[in-house]
């Protein structure tokens, strides 16, 4: 099974997985193990472009920055890559995304001072609230998505 993280011992994994109908006689080639994410203290070290604050020749991207997940890591690479190219081309531009977009909210999260910094997935909770309260979660998320799209299209 891909992506299975657990603290269960291998023998217990075999026992539990074998209880699943159809897997009673399966041969398990590799068992799951828990892994530890390593990440830097981005709020201390990085700005919203994933550039080091004290050495602007170095950019970071991916899970080491404190974004968690494949899409989030790709987004951090996009921001870092665009800004590395701008620096290389000596344009003196810093390209950032609005905090009303998920890319911008994640960038802001990793760059905002936080004594208890921990990795973060993309989630609606890191976006700024809407001006109007919407109780229905599905409706609220739809409005947050529309607002983010508008930030890209009209800014």
How is this structure best described in words?
With 155 residues, the protein is mainly α. 39% of the residues lie in helices and 0% in strands. The chain has five helices and no strands. The chain has helices at residues 10-18, 42-45, 70-88, 102-111, 137-154. The mean pLDDT is 92.
Q: What tags apply to this protein structure?
A:
155 residues; single chain; 0% strand; mainly alpha; extended
Q: Which residues sit in consecutive blocks of at least 5 with pLDDT less than 50?
A: none
Counting DSSP E segments of at least 2 residues, the number of strands comes to 0
Briefly note the structural class of the backbone.
Answer: mainly alpha
**Residue fraction in strands:** under 5%
Number of helices: 5
Output the radius of gyration: 20 Å
- Provide the helix percentage: 25-40%
Major sheet characteristics: none
The overall pLDDT, averaged over residues, is 92
Order of helices and strands: HHHHH
The separation of the N and C termini measures 44 Å
Quick summary:
The chain is mainly α and 155 residues long.
Strand and helix layout:
Elements: H1 10-18, H2 42-45, H3 70-88, H4 102-111, H5 137-154
């Amino acid at each position: 099974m891909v992506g299975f993280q657990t603290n269960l011992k291998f023998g217990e994994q075999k026992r539990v997985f074998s209880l699943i109908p159809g897997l009673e006689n399966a041969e398990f080639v590799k068992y799951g193990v828990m892994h530890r994410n390593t990440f830097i203290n981005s709020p201390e070290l990085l700005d919203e472009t994933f550039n080091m604050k004290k050495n602007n020749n170095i950019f970071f991207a991916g899970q080491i920055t404190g974004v968690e997940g494949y899409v989030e890591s790709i987004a951090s690479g996009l921001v870092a890559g665009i800004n590395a190219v701008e620096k290389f081309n000596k344009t003196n531009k810093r390209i950032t995304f609005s905090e009303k977009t998920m890319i911008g909210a994640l960038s802001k999260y990793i760059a905002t001072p936080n004594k208890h910094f921990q990795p973060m997935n993309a989630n609606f909770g890191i976006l700024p609230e809407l001006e109007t309260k919407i109780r229905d979660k599905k409706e609220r998320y739809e409005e947050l998505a529309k607002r983010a799209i508008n930030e890209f299209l009209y800014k």
